[in-house]
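Please check this one:

***
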Amino acid sequence: MIVGKCADYVLKGRPNVVSIYIEAPRAFCLKRTMEHMGVTEEVANATITQTDKFRADYYAYYTHGNYWTNPVNYDMTLNSERVGIDDCVRIIEDYLVLKGFVSGEEIGNKDKSPESDKASAKK
């Protein structure tokens, strides 16, 4: 797994790659940053702004001007506030199983396999 570092761009077109972008509204990110880091809203806001600028600049530089949050760069884009963090994980796991990258057993869902999903859908 490669997180960030223009992985969607560098690995584009490779057969065994899934590229996922997880986003959330600023207010949600702000709240989570404050809780996770134990900082004030001002510090959290500055941290998010600085991090987003670094990521945007880094991505644009190494991808010849592309924009890192453009959903067409990814196989899937999820909004973690709307979907929920735990459900984002489940959706990604299910997608990896569906595409044959892993088995349900590998991710801890012993009942998850493309065959079991098809059988469930027929019921």
